[in-house]
Amino acid sequence: MASPPSPHLLPSLILTPTFLLVLLLxxxxxxxxxxxxxxxxxxxxxxxxxSWLSPSGDFAFGFYPTDAQASLFLVAIWFESTSPKAxxxxxxxxxxxxxxxxxxxxxxxxxxxxxEGGNEVWSAGPANASAAAVLDSGNVxxxxxxxxxxxxxxxxxxxxxxxxxxxxxxDLRSQLTDSDFSGGRFELAAQTSGExxxxxxxxxxGNQYDPYWSIDTNGSGFQLVYNESGSIYVALTNGTLLxxxxxxxxxxxxxxxxxxLDPDGVFRQYIYPKNGRATAxxxxxxxxxxxxxxxxxxxxxxxxxxSGTCGFNSYCSSGGDQSEVDCLCPPGxxxxxPERKYKGCEQDFPPNCKRYDPAHFNLIPMDNADWPFxxxxxxxxxxxxxxxxxxxxxxxxxxxxxxxxKECWKKKLPLSNGKMGSYxxxxxxxxxSKTNNTSPLLPSVVVKKERKALIQIxxxxxxCSGFFNAIFIALIITKIFGSRRGGSQTFQPxxxxxxxxxxxxxxxxxxxxxxxxxxxxxRGAFGSVYKxxxxxxxxxxxxxxxxxxxxxxxxKEFINEVRSIGQTHHKNLVKLIGYxxxxxxxxxxxxYMRNGxxxxxxxxxxxxxxxxxxxxIFGIARGLLYLHDECxxxxxxxxxxxxxxxxxxxxxxRISDFGLAKLLRxxxxxxxxxxxxxxxxxxxxWFKSMAIxxxxxxxxxxxxxxxxxxxxxxxxxxxxxxxxPVLIYWAYDWYKDGRADLLVENDKEALADMEEVEVCESSxxxxxxxxxxxxxxxxxxSDAGRSS
Length: 788
Prior knowledge:
Layout: E1 8-14, H1 17-24, E2 36-37, E3 42-44, E4 51-53, E5 59-65, E6 72-79, E7 86-91, E8 97-98, E9 102-104, E10 111-114, E11 120-124, E12 131-134, E13 140-144, E14 147-151, E15 159-160, E16 164-167, E17 171-175, E18 183-190, E19 195-200, E20 213-216, E21 222-226, E22 232-236, E23 240-243, E24 255-261, E25 267-273, E26 288-292, H2 296-299, E27 315-317, E28 326-328, E29 333-335, E30 345-347, E31 361-367, E32 369-370, E33 375-379, H3 384-392, E34 399-403, E35 407-411, E36 418-420, E37 427-433, H4 444-463, H5 466-486, E38 503-504, H6 507-513, E39 520-524, E40 527-533, E41 541-547, H7 552-565, E42 576-582, E43 585-591, H8 610-630, E44 635-636, E45 645-647, E46 653-655, E47 662-663, H9 695-710, H10 727-736, H11 748-751, H12 754-765, H13 771-775, H14 781-787
Parallel strand pairs: 27-36, 38-42
Antiparallel strand pairs: 1-23, 2-12, 3-9, 4-5, 5-6, 6-7, 6-8, 9-10, 10-11, 12-13, 13-14, 15-24, 16-21, 17-18, 18-19, 19-20, 21-22, 22-23, 24-25, 25-26, 27-28, 29-30, 31-37, 32-36, 33-35, 34-35, 34-37, 39-40, 40-41, 41-43, 42-43, 44-47, 45-46
Helix pairs in contact: 8-9, 9-12
């Protein structure tokens, strides 16, 4: 892979942490002009009231038509006063709505998108917001008492605006095409591991391939900042700033600006003059003042997987300026879909090696072109004529690459990562048909003879008696289903699992998907979890839980887990895709959560914002409510802790790992069993020989809720330092003294929202149904709780 371009250090710009903090506060609303949107207001797609404007009229928020007929709409934010208009943010962009749906601002100021039947299909913001506004910055905010509770700037799609920050764990994803707003083939990811990367993606799964541009911050915390002066840089936590675009700074007073990850994979910074708008255009290359990478055709070269910048069997060409990348088909090929060039090119002649005749073909030379992969033969010490001959005589050879007067590679379809440019010192020899007939490999007379024979056979079958037809059909069905069973006789799925619509995997399939169980994501009491990739399945990224022990109890837990999770479907639970029960192998296959566990965002260098943490608390609570009260068979998790809460791409909390769950029958509300769980989260009931109910999960959730509020571990000892008090005792003592603010004393966002902090804390420490409250009962249970 080509080396990523090196970032540029801004000269003489090393800032103190205090000054950097001030510099990064780019999302404040105090200096912006805005007016509240009236609660109860409704927008209707396709009507005269389909959007709200910012005070200046420069931005609009509402229903944006995605086609010329205005039959499909996106919930979006766009530049309203430019021509053409330009979308800068959208919700549910993979599923535009038809005219008729409404976007409402109910009395609780939560944005709510409803379909024609009145069913809510999308919402944004907490239920306690009191106002909404479209700002002149292009940011849509929901507020309460002047504080932002939700903002579109925190959930970018493919565009950043001046004043916007992309934090670690966030990303931009390009549109599929300029006319198709759905998620595209490229991503700008601020990785939690410490890199800012541009990566190609697989469609439709979104699987990431090798990055083609990156900035490595050496594991330091960072943010990508597009400041209100028009500069774009990476700000490290130590105060260092790394420039990203190296563009001349254009005044935001004189120019509208946006930086967009375009459908061709290039991250471009655009300007649009606020005067002379009639001659300006967002798509003009003059208006693209900077970009990374400098030449995506040159820089994007994966390790072999994926098609590259353009689609399979095509090649990439660029002039090195700010204009769009050009994807072209080689001679003898045409685009599968000219409107969606990313789908690639196909041969104008269908191959048929059974009737292959080299005399029907020529090789057309293309200088300075190459497809670096897909080669299957390599010859040395040959001349160009020999290279041509070797390819012509081989039916599988689609292209031959000749280099250095002596090297020859034969390549087969599909061709990937194709590119053309002066930096490529190679000659491509493209195999094409001489005749340009529809099928030079399959003469029409042969087609007619075979078609006539099939018609004759069909006529005979139709003329036979129903008895012989039935026998013939039965033989075909037996053959089909017999061949399918033949490849899967080494393992038998549990007959009771078919009703749960789970996929049955073979052990070999999962071994290949995980590259021999190479990348371990985590380890638990019953086994390890590995990352995997299934290229043939829509959920490409998977997490495979491999149960290492083969004791009877382990197999029982495995069966319980498959049965329980197979019946659970909730947005705050990790989805089980399938399982393997082959011989001695017991494995569970889950959807992969790229952001990992909640623990990494509570106790590491990168902390989630207060409102993100509040939404995570709500999400976990909803998931537990579903497990306890809404499942057809209620489930006690028994091991609620941050490690077992995963975060999806949008930082939505997803409860995982029901391997320790004890199922409750519909007529059973409690059960006695051995102690389960993790030290620090185990409820007092476990130590008192009391009946175990769903309240043990409530206690564990309460402990974890305190950790989320305070971003501090419940049990924590620093080596070489005095042991800190147990979090629940410390929190309870301060809460009794009326000093709940000390629990979040270093969190400015939480301190600005003390009402919600106190609600969260009181629900943990004094709620009558919570096991945590029971542990601190003034009548004496506190000692029992502390002894646990």
